[in-house]
Amino acid sequence: MFELLREGAPLFFNLSALALTIFGVVAGLVIGVLPGLGPLMGIVLMLPVAFHLPPIAGMGMLIAIYVGGSAGGSISAILLRIPGTPLAAATLFDGYPLAQKGRSQDAIGLSITASALGGLISGLILLFFSPILAAFALRFAPPEYAAMALLGLLTIAIVSEGSAIKGLIAGGFGLVLATVGTDEFTNAYRFTFGNFNLTSGPNLVAVVVGLFALSELFFQIEKGDFLARPQIQKLKTSFRALRLILRHKFNLVRSALVGTFFGAIPGAGGDISAFISYAVAKRMARPNERYGEGEEGGVVATEAANNGTCGGALIPSLSLGIPGDASTAVLLGALFLLGFFPGPELFRYNPDVAGGIFIAYLMSNVVMLILGIVLVPFFGAVLKVPKAWLLPAVLLLSTMGVYALQNSVFNLWVMLFFGVLGYTMRKAHYPLSPIIIGMILGPVLENNFRRALLLSRDGPMIFVERPISAAILGIVAVMLVYVVWTTVRPAMAEPDKAA
Amino acid sequence: MNLSGKLTALALGTAVLAGPAFADFPERNIENIYPWAPGATMAASQVIADALGTELGVNISVVSTPGAGGVKAFEAALARPADGYTIFDGYVAPLVLQPMQGNADWSYEDYTPLWSATSNSFAIAVRADEDRFEDFTALVAYMRDNPGELRYSPGSAGALPHMVAAKVMQVEDVFAQLVPYPEIDVAVRDMRGGVLDFMVTNPGVYNINKADMKILAVLSDLEDSSKTYDGAPLIGSFGVETGMHDLSPMGWNWWLVRKETPEDVVATLREAMGAVVNNPDVQAKLLDMGYVPTLFAPEQYADIVGPVAAELQSGIDAIDWEKQKLDAQ
Amino acid sequence: MARLKSHAWDVVAWVFFAAVPLVIFYQAATNLAEQGVASGGPLENAAVFPRIIAWILAGLAVVNILRILMGLVTAPSPLSTTPTTRLALTATLLFVVYLVALPYVGYHLLTPVLLTILMRLLGLGWIASIVAALGFSLGVAAVFEGLLNVVLPVGFAEIAVFG
Hints:
The structure holds three protein chains of three kinds. Chain B is α/β, with parallel strands linked by helices. Chain B has helices at residues 3-18, 40-56, 71-78, 92-100, 136-145, 160-172, 184-192, 203-209, 223-227, 263-277, 280-288, 301-328; strands at 30-34, 60-64, 86-91, 111-120, 123-127, 151-153, 177-178, 198-201, 213-218, 251-258, 292-293. Chain B has two domains: 28-120 and 250-296, Bordetella uptake gene, domain 1 (D-Maltodextrin-Binding Protein, domain 2, 3-Layer(aba) Sandwich); 123-247 and 314-328, Periplasmic binding protein-like II (D-Maltodextrin-Binding Protein, domain 2, 3-Layer(aba) Sandwich), CATH 3.40.190. In chain B, helix 2 packs across helix 10 (263-277) and helix 6 (160-172) packs across helix 12 (301-328). The chains are: A mainly alpha, B alpha/beta, C mainly alpha. Chains A and C meet through helix 7, strand 2, helix 8, helix 17 and helix 18 of A and helix 2, helix 3, helix 4, helix 5 and helix 6 of C.
């Protein structure tokens, strides 16, 4: 595992990669601070830029945004009682009361420190486990990859917010989108409707920006208050939090581990792990700690967990090519487009790239620990920028980012279409992430499914004859039974409860 | 006019002045529309684009526009004005192959050539520790004794490497189970894992995966091709005559512009590109990556590209032959 | 009927997702069959996988409409509006006009206009809007044209400021 770091070091430790990591952390924090835009949007907005950079500098920037974006949401949660991202929703419980007691400085300091340290802990686990998992996955062949893709998609559809049925519909729709374009086995055009722009399918980035960013802009305009400048307490730079957090070291490590664990399960995102970690911390609290009324431990528990999730989510993403959440799905897409295949091959053929990504992740957390605290007053100022300036700027950046991918206006229409769809889905309480995961895993699933059948000498039996593939499909079957059970049982027990 | 109106006028005026619409070509950045997904091959185009950009004093961006076996990139470039600001990265697939298969309605004569860029030959590779077949002759003998038992991947089905491999097998009257791997790096993984018995590789993939593969035969009749595979034997040295010569069994690209492009623009581009591909530094860079500069001048376009079509038809026929063999199995 | 109203967005989303499998079945039977890739083994049959997904989606659609009609969808999704919904729709319409005109008019002429109108709509003053619109569009152009060598739409006037 230290070999990976040594191989990756030369790729990462140069001026441009370091500078871009610093830029990424700050940009991520700013995007996290702004209500409505999360780490995913940050990654997507900077994706076109990353394609024009050397691989590690580009991936390093995106990962830094991922790290910063996962932490920044807590600042607005603490100061305004508006979580900047869903990840920070649980930070409200104690962060906002702390700020009301006049301790917003401490609350923000603790949240950033806990995020950075939690991220570092999960980074060490990532460093240790990914090569092991990747070495195991070297035994995988097409049947196993098809089974893994199915499992990844299923967990994401089931675990994401909303009903499992809606998650499955969204995931299935993502698979359908992945089939649009030129079939890679027959070179036939599928579902292109005679439009040559569709012969490579809808562009992933255009879909992501449409679903997430455009729909969010529409929601933001519907909310009004374009010129409001929120009142917040005066903030300064202070490293007191580094001392404060020592009182919570067990809480910190435990929460980081909880976050890493849930991050490594495809589909369980940072918001879920933050809530679970908060519940655990509350249960293990000493009698004199009053969670929910401004307890430092509450902020530490949620923030260490939601940033620990990042490192966790990178584990299956890098070692198996199965994304842990929507953000890592887009990171995987970026890696594909830069010409690298996540999975065991990455560790075998490009150990320098894998190592560089690990270093980038660890360094992002280190940078955040320092800059996150130094720049606290700046983030306070960012919160005061009225939406009338912000919304048009975000619209322009998203639009030109999508255009620049292939210098294509058609992609902008794709983006608009998915903006409308994203709005409809959010109104109807559908999760959006499974679409993205479906689009990424679709080709993995279909190509390996068909390939396995070609390789097999006795048809579909190949999927159950191979032990690993059979085991994975067994888990899939259990999960499907669970979904049916949870969907059917309430229907029989209490029909028409909601009407 | 109120203040805001004045500001608008001023802004628009500045913008118009900043883009002189009547200076000498080129006055702004040029795009090279590249027909595949990013990867080693795109890096080769990028090398030429960077050098050509320096020569012309602008930037040339290589825009990856994959889809429909390269046709999408041509369609996208055709939709742009014929002003020399859009260059077609004319790979053999969209330029010759797709029209032959009825997937596009142009011929190579519909474009104005600049210089030819690079070629890369294909090769048959097996696992580095393969002990069933010593050399290409042994592989053929094994296939003859065990018809259809081996599994192989030429990358994408129906593409150029597939044609050449099918042609070789047709000539030898042997066949193996075809398993397409559009992502060729993944084919290397599965060959190493024992799922595939042999594959068709290109120099870019070979360069990265040298430790895991052994080249049995380079599918070309040019000595330069052997060099990109560290001196592996050419297919001809095993007495196999495929009937595909020179550029025909290889991937190659020729940079093109639209037919209606003004002559002075074409002349400027040709002169600059001629200087670039004949520059020893650029050539060395390309060779390092496994791409051989072909150095055909614009005037040779028809003589070189014309014969390719006829020889490729035999590759298309070979794929049909292979399909019949596999279906009959 | 009351349920269709209280779950209006659910119904809209349902109609969209229920149409997807139908399109797949139709395309597989027509277009893909004409291309000769709707039958045969895994090598030749490009329609198998989409058809499997379509069957699953069709099944899920049936379950979902039953859940809506039986009142098992707990979260309501009525067609509610806010005082600024009309503004959001206007902005969307503006963006559509922008996309239509972009290839012909070009980035540098059109973007400042779009941004100025948007910022005016969101309540900024004329001068602030114009200055910010110019600043934003030039800033974004500087990054994409200047740093990343992207050719932004040049339009009829063939304008590229940083290219």
